[in-house]
Amino acid sequence: MQAPVARPLVHAVVAFGAGILLSGFITLPVIVILGLAVACLVAAVITHKRAFAISCGLFFLVFLLSGSGAALQARSTVEGPLRALDGHFVTVEGVVAEEPDYRRNGIMYILEVKRLAIGPRQGPASGRVVVVLPDYSFRYGDLIRVKGKLVLPESAGNPGAFDYRTYLERQGVGMLLRVRGDGQAVRLDSTDGRIRALASGLKEKLVGGLYKALNEDQAVVVAGITLGERSIIPQNLSAVFAATGVAHVLSVSGLHVGFLVGIVLFAARQLRAGPLSTMVGAAAVLSVYALIVGLQPPVLRASVMWMMLLGAQQLGRARDWPTAMAVAALLILILNPFALYSAGFQLSFAATWGILFIGPELVRGCEHLAGRIGVPWRTAWGWFIAVPVAAQLATWPLIAYYYNLYSTYGLLANWVVVPLVGLIFVLGMIAGLVGAVVPWLAWLIGPFTGLLVDLFTGAVRWIALLPGAAPVVASPAPWVIGIWFAVLWAAVRAAADREWRARFGALFAGGRKFVVVLLVLTATVWFFPVDRTLEVHFIDVGQGDSILLRTPGGKNLLIDSGGWPGEFESGSGAGDKVVLPYLKKLGINRIDLLVITHLHEDHAGGARALVSGLKVNALAVPAPALDRDGEGFPLLTWIRGQGIDLYPVEAGDRTAVDPALGIAFLGPPQQPLRGTGADENNNSAVLRVAYGSVVFLLTGDLESEGQERLLQGGFPLKADILKIPHHGSTCRPDFLDRVQPKVAVISVGRENRFGLPRKDTLELLEKRGIRVLRTDRDGAVIIESDGRRVRVKTGRPVSPLTSHLSMPAALTKPSDYSLRQRASQVSSSMPRSKVMAETSSWMTNSQANTSQPFTRCPPKARPSSSARVTWA
């Protein structure tokens, strides 16, 4: 076995990265951290000759402390004095510090603040803010004046959700500047002489040249491939690229830099340039290209590694890719310590590691297999196969973690389209240059480039239509990702080295019994799961409702889908931006039953996105919702058109989606409420969910009249967890006295225009000693129960609580309801054959033989209720 190669830079980068990760747990001032780093450096130099091992450890500490210091300094810059002005109306003068970013609601600008005024007071200021303006009026480097309100970005309310505050902080941005109305921003000066400003202007000209050479649909794809302009690509096309595992071609990375280096080397060969001229020319081209496309981690990584490779060739030095990767990573992390957390940084380095570490062994394996079966083979063919395989092996857990999908045909797509991408890149760069400089000559190259683009997108769309192209997967835990990479590393070492293979063989032989036992236990847990937990997720959707039930039997029920203003018309809002990503993070790709409590937009607006993005087996809505042509009725018509069974429900119906649960509908009443001024709210679907001795009462948007009718209905109302009706708008004292909840959940939007939850509702809950959890303050509320105890978790930290809340004696398990057939007639606005479908697997009664999809439950004496609650 060869002696290991000493790579001090690799260890230094590992230490620097570890310091960045540890910075979140350090409270010491930056000056103290840097002082300790200097002391360790001096000690390392002194002990270098006498105690080499100690000196190495001290050098490791130097980089560890330097990483922590850099991260703390970057964080202190973000959390600067601008944070103290949260909620103030100000006038900001600042320089556009990054390229403008196209968004659906306008153009996003990042401003480096120079001056700030609050009323008559003004003076110099520092920090970065984000402002969204309606048009593309400003360029990188412009000094502009903007009037607006400084607002602290919202943190993520749902676990695993996109955290906008953290995202901006990692770009050095601490505050949002909200602008109302046009004419609030003016240009004061322009700094076109700046290098990045010139590069930004060149990029604009190249994109404009593409639009002159190609039609719009083709130009946006070529702009993404050549210049990384993903923001202008239609969302549906981006989704197709992601599903087929070729989204990386739209994000400038090592693949694109490699194409560019290939062009430079080809040109140098044709011009018979020497090694030094080639290296200098390549460095110049790569530097300009990195500035044009933006100094993103993948571009910097690839550019630095290629420059080091060409430099090693010029100097006659060994080409050591781990050292080159370490130099690139250290440079990126010094410029921005928070780049360590970005998906682009992690995926870029993981893919490169996979290609350079795993790839050679795959190539050797292909050659060995070809030799054994007697097939003529070339090394280049092996690399053609190995590169996408190695990259996919190295990036799969990260893609699952960040994007919750697995591209089943990703290898096929990459083998088919990557050669086309190379041609499109080269021809696209030429088309952009020709279109920008000599527009009337663009037709010479545009048609052929456009043909390749159409062939490329057509192949990707065809692959995306194959069955099971992009199944949803849950985000793996970080320790699972670590094990994945450890297994990959060990497998490659064993394949590459005989001594390592011998060690692994001995380990397996010595631990054979252990391995067999482990496999048996794994199979037992896999096929016979022991987890009998009910999870109820009150998702933070802003001003709206969405409640997910994950049952002990593995079923998924969603009660309401959230909704933002205008979502019925646009189809985009809480459904595709919040609820769908939340479900995908959990690995959910099927909803067994979707219940819409009523057809208001804040409860039903996201349903269209959910039905489009997941498999929904059935939909239940209140029966009165079918009697009128309300704002949500077109949505029901559309859902029926998707072939989804639709069932109207009313008080007395129950469903056995999971036999372990007792799920009964206590509303709407069989005689709908009319003339209350809020009929749709008062006729909301109300669900009672019982698991063992634990009861949830989910009340939709019931107003006072609906709560009174529920009290008169004779149904058992006592519950441990109560979803407060109508976002905390109203809650009758006698209703609370009847339910006697231990925990109350209010689903409500932050700083909503309705002023909810109402102060008197909160005072009523506090007076009765009911613990209140709110999605606007606490984020998502996740309640887990084994049928006896309840554990509560929240998306944001809550105030300290006792670990257990004492409760009365255990709740007796609810006795079975007697059953009778549904008696009421459904609305004639829907075909009866559709509404009253035959019993299906999701809608049967586990306690009686019946052919009806719902069964009726008459009132029964109210049981006592109690459960032990744990706060996490």
Description:
The structure is a single chain. This protein has 872 residues and is an alpha/beta fold. 46% of the residues lie in helices and 15% in strands. It is built from 29 helices and 28 strands. The protein has a ten-stranded mixed sheet, covered by helices on one side. An eight-stranded mixed sheet has the order 23-22-21-20-19-18-17-27. Strands 1-3-5-7-6 form a five-stranded mixed barrel. The model is unreliable at 799-854 and 856-866 (pLDDT under 50).
Topology, element by element:
Blueprint: H1 8-22, H2 30-46, H3 52-78, E1 89-96, E2 101-103, E3 106-118, E4 121-124, E5 128-133, E6 143-151, H4 164-169, E7 175-178, E8 185-189, H5 195-213, H6 216-227, H7 235-243, H8 254-271, H9 275-293, H10 297-315, H11 321-335, H12 343-373, H13 379-403, H14 410-437, H15 446-464, H16 478-496, H17 498-510, H18 512-527, E9 534-538, E10 547-550, E11 556-559, H19 567-570, H20 574-585, E12 590-591, E13 593-595, H21 601-604, H22 607-613, E14 615-616, E15 618-622, H23 633-641, E16 645-649, E17 653-655, E18 662-667, H24 679-682, E19 686-691, E20 694-698, H25 704-712, E21 721-723, H26 733-739, E22 743-746, H27 759-767, E23 771-774, H28 775-778, E24 781-785, E25 789-794, E26 804-805, H29 832-835, E27 855-856, E28 868-871
Parallel strand pairs: 5-7, 11-13, 12-14, 13-15, 15-16, 20-21, 21-22, 22-23, 25-28
Antiparallel strand pairs: 1-3, 1-6, 2-3, 3-4, 3-5, 6-7, 6-8, 9-10, 9-24, 10-11, 17-18, 17-27, 18-19, 19-20, 24-25, 26-28
Helix pairs in contact: 1-3, 1-11, 2-3, 5-6, 5-9, 5-14, 6-14, 8-9, 8-10, 9-10, 10-11, 12-13, 13-14, 13-16, 14-15, 16-17, 20-22
